Amino acid sequence: MSENKPSLKYRLALRFNYEARSAGLFILPVMTVLALVAVFPILYSLYTSFFKLKLTRPHQVPFVWFDNYVEILTDELFIESVYRTVSFTLMSVVAILLIATMISLLLNETFRGRRFVSAMILIPWAIPTVANGLLWKWIYDSGYGALNGLLKQLGIIEKYTVWLGDPDKTIPLIANAFVWKEVPLAAILILVTMKSIPADLYRAAKVDGANVIQRFVHITLPSLKPGFMLVLIYETMMAIRHFDLFFLLTEGGPADASHVVSWQIYVETFRNLSFGTGSAMSYILAIVTFALAYAIIKSLGKRI
Fold it and tell me: Does the model's pTM come out above 0.90?
């Protein structure tokens, strides 16, 4: 066996052969572009977060170390925006998980027209984010919105309501629009996991006398943990940093009722032109997002 073993020189030649060098040469332009458009802005924003950079006074840019971070973490408006972000995230992710699970259970069954239903369910996910925001803005409109028209015809309300003008309803309404768009992808991810469950487990459970609920609790749910973890991580990250719907529907209003962290980053950076504190907020949001993702993987990954 030792006589047939390739020599070190031959193995090194295979490792650093012409094809590998050629592949690296072709990849180099792509990596260069990614470094310029992705890596450099990330590093530069970190560098900016340590300066009191405000475009209204471009010649006065003092180095302040972590003062921007301390200022943000002690800002009452930022703390309130964190609470609103947490509320929006919990509301959205829980709804997405529940609705996506029910849809995946439906699509996992064999019935006539299943392919058509699957295609129709994917439509919200295929709609661009801006178009989705404008769609729900028209639905919630107080003058000609479809929601007011439907509820009035059903006799649930007596007159048209300014839905997005009520501070108590703003976050749930935006969460509803977010859930509508994100559910199809989550349902597909859970469905793929569901398809990987061996059919022998269900047949054995039926032989043992397990009913539908018992099979779901003891076989389906435990087997869906990988899909749940993937959906939980992805949707949590999307909800925490979501900005589009808040910009299109309310612009942080009414009376800061939808003033979440992502909206405050936009206001601080592009309206107040405070790029130092805006960059610091962005990094706080990024660190929290990655920490949550790590915690979810660490806690759920051991049980899979």
Answer: no
